[in-house]
Structures are given as C-alpha cells and as structure tokens.
Amino acid sequence: MNPYAKMKHSDPISDAQPPFPSATATMRKKHHQQPKAGLPEKGHSSVRSPWLLSVLAAVPLFVAPLITASFLITISQFEGSLSRFVTTGFEQGFLTIMKAHGPRLSLKPTFAYTCYIALQAVLFYLLPGPTNTGQRTPAGYLLTYRTNGLYAWVITHSIYALLCWYGLLDPGFVIRNWSGIFIAMNLFGYLVAIFAYGKAYLRPSHPEDRRFSGSALQDLYAGIELNPRFGKTFDFKFFTNGRMGMISWTLIDISSIAYQHQAHHTVSPSLILVTILQSIYAIDFFINESWYLRTIDITHDHYGFYLIWGCFCFLPANYTLQAQYLTHYPTSPSTIYLAAIFSIGIAGYALFRSVNNQKDRVRRSNGKCLIWGKPAQYITATYKTSDGVEHKSILLCSGWWSCARHVNYVGDLLLSFSMCAVVGTDKLLVWLYVIWMGGLLVHRIVGRCRGGLFRVFGEGYRPTGKRLDLTTIYTFHSVQSKIPINYTISAHYTK
C-alpha cells in the first residue's frame, strides 16, 4: 500500500505469475541464473541526467512534508479552509505561518510513537499466520511472506482499548498530541529512508534486484532495494506498507471519536460513518493480505523515501483528514443524506470486492470455476522473465471483466467519494482524498493501460480487439513499472 497508490486500490499483477505459487520455503528461486557481477544496471527512468534526477527528487523529499504540515495547520488554525490558509500565506508568508503554527517536536508523543513501532515489529515477527508467495522478482526470486496482519490489527486495537479502559491511556491521546506525533512520523520516515539507503549498499538482501539511477538523491527517494529484509522473514517493505500505514489509519479515526466526545460531549454521526467506512477498508486489506503481495506496491516499488515516508506519514496524516476535520468541527447532515451516502460507500466496496474476487477465483482455480453461474472465459497467456524462462498465466474476460476494463476502479471511487461526502461540508480539504484517488486511477488507465498494452504486445495487440483490451489490465503494469518481464499472448481462448 504504496500510500500514493492507495494500498488497497493497487491491483494484483496476478497475470504475471503462475496460477498456483507454492510457499514451502521462505525464499527460493525457481530456476537457476548467473548472478550479476558488481553493481546492477541503472534504473529505467526516462530522465538520464543525474543532476536533473537529483533536482526532481529533492522537490518531494523536502516539499511533501511541508504540504502535509500545511493541512494540519489548516485544520487547527483556519477551520479547515484551504482558501483562508492560502490567502493568509500570501499576505503574511507561508514560512511565517509554519513557524508560528507548525507542528512541534515533543518527547511524550515521540516516545509513544516509538513504542507503537516496536509493538508492530514484535507482532509482525512473532504472530503466526499463513505463508504466501509473492510475485517473481526481476532477478527470478520468489519470496514468501507470513500474512498475520489481521491478527496484528485486532491485537493492536485490543491493547489500545484495554489501556484506555484501565485509565493508562487517554482515548483521545493521538489527536490531543497530533502535532508531536506528526513530527515523530516524519522523523521516522526520514530515518528509515536513510537506513534503507545505507543497507542497500552495505548489506543488500537480494543484490541482483537493486536499482541505481546515478543520483544519490534519486536513489534515496525512489529506493535501491526491491525487497530488503532482516533475516529471512522480516520484510521491511511489507511491514512498512501494512503496519505503519493501515493500522495507524484506524487508530487515528478511533482517537478522533474519543477526542470529539471529550471536547464536544457528543459524537457526530458523520464521524462514526467515516470511521466505519475506513475500518471496512482497512480490515478488508488485512483479510486479503495475501492478495496484496501481488500488487505493484510490493512487486514494483523499491524501498525508498517515496514508499517509507508515504506509509509512515503521508497515509496516516492525509487519509484521515475527514476524521481530523470532524474532530474539531462536527457537522450535522440530515439522516437521509447520511444514509444515502453511506449506502453508496457500501455498494462501492461490494463492487470492488466482487470484481477482484472473480479475478482471484479464476487465478487460483486455473480457470476451472464458474463466473456468474457460467464457466469462466479466459485467455491463456505466456510470459518470459528476464532470464529467458517462460511461464503461463490466464487472463479473465468474463463476469465483470467482460463489462469494462476497470469496474473495480468504479467501486474504489464510489467508496472514496462516500468517505468524503459523508462529512457533509464543501471544504476542499476533506475532498482531497477522492480527488487524489480520481487522478491516480485516471493516470493508471490512460497513462499505463493504453500505452502499456501496445508497448508490450506491439502490433499483436490490435488483432485481438477489445477482448484483450478488457482482460490484460494488469500485465503491462510490470513493464511500465520497470520490471523486465516480457509478455506474449498465446492463441488459446477458452469459453
């Protein structure tokens, strides 16, 4: 879940792996290949100039945290009005506002956040769970993961509830100390990114899967290692995506409810519904955690600042803007309005899950299943990894996948819209979530899908017509994501 791709919305690249990956070892390579000597090849960025890469990387490295901090200030000082914040910023100077009202480092929330990270690391390492295999890496590795995130989510929230029940923790602690926690999230985001950068040079887990750009800042930002690990089982990227992002999300929402009750002696229905929708979202992520292993977050994104800071800070700070706003400024939409918006959100989630379940069912059964009461229709595809070994997979083209190429994205957007609309305000700040998701998904469809299909299949894409267009929405993600896997489509269409 890199966060910018909204973890749960990242589509599984199930077409890029065999239908039945086994999980009998922590890590193994299914075929032999000669390891690369020395440093691996440089990355595949279209920008080749190291100094230009450094400039492009420096902008998000230093500007993104400031933008996120501006949202915190907008809520605390400008009643959630971005227009007022911007106007005042031009009048008084944005740096002046940052110095006067920006978040502050505080020992207590920093210590609490450190304990939270330690707890998540212990749960990640010790809790039992099924073992699942991820996507084949460019160097040919098949890594296995213990998916115990749902247990960790339940235990974390249970500990939080018990500490509050016995008076050891203020239920509204997170929101009451949000300024200090925000600084702590940023601090750890930077520290872990620097650690990952050094580890990639000194103790890489899989040297053949590293990627270098020629620019130190770009490598710090985009990451060098694909799957850095501590030992054989502690995968840093998997831990960061799920535990520091998704579990934090619902904890912040729950603390928002507690703080609103303490401050206003009531809890607004809007905040309750926002929390329910986002909790459904997070719990579904952990229930389907094995599915997440085949998304571009895990298979494509290297472990750098982009992913690390995104999960430590961007996701918890920005995906909870609706709850943060309602905590301080409760709204009172009508019951009919709330019921209608909430129903749209549930319908969007149901659509999202139904579409992706069809995909998973066909992949896991190797096409031997029913879709909408009829035998699944699919195209058999072959692809080659960078070492020349050929593999087979299937591309579903019935059920939802015969209706449109991205019906799951429709469900995503409906759910995202509901999370914002249920707040019941026209403040732009609370709508940034669905605006972000809309832009992201359109970019995937237009930027990656159309262009990627033709680049992967060349002229062979045209004769297959709309059916291939409908059913290969994942195959080109790997190519666009700089994973050197070349695909060819065989002539086997099964009804």
Explained architecture:
By secondary structure, the protein is mainly α. The protein has one domain (3-494). It is built from 20 helices and ten strands. Strand 2 (131-133) and strand 3 (141-146) form a beta hairpin. Helix 4 (107-126) packs across helix 5. The radius of gyration is 23 Å and the shape is globular. It is a multi-pass membrane protein. This is 7-dehydrocholesterol reductase. Keywords: Cholesterol biosynthesis, Cholesterol metabolism, Lipid biosynthesis, Lipid metabolism, Membrane, NADP, Oxidoreductase, Steroid biosynthesis, Steroid metabolism, Sterol biosynthesis, Sterol metabolism, Transmembrane, Transmembrane helix.
Write the layout of secondary structure elements.
Blueprint: E1 27-29, H1 50-77, H2 82-92, H3 94-101, H4 107-126, E2 131-133, E3 141-146, H5 149-165, H6 173-176, H7 178-202, H8 216-222, E4 229-230, E5 234-235, H9 236-264, H10 269-287, H11 289-292, H12 296-299, H13 305-318, H14 321-328, H15 335-364, E6 370-371, E7 374-375, E8 378-384, E9 390-396, H16 407-421, H17 428-457, H18 461-464, H19 466-471, H20 475-480, E10 486-494
Subcellular location: Membrane
Region (Disordered): 1-43
Protein name: 7-dehydrocholesterol reductase
Largest sheet: 3 strands, antiparallel
Count structural domains: 1
Secondary structural class: mainly alpha
Total beta strand runs = 10
Q: Any idea what the radius of gyration is? A: 23 Å
Uncertain parts = 7-44, 450-495
| Elements, N to C (H/E) | EHHHHEEHHHHEEHHHHHHHEEEEHHHHHE
Helix count from the secondary structure assignment? 20
Q: Tell me the span between the first and last alpha carbons.
A: 34 Å
What's the pLDDT, averaged over the residues?
A: 80
Q: Rough shape?
A: globular
The fraction of residues assigned to DSSP E strands is 5-15%
Strand order of the largest sheet: 1-3-2
Q: Percent helix among the residues?
A: 55-70%
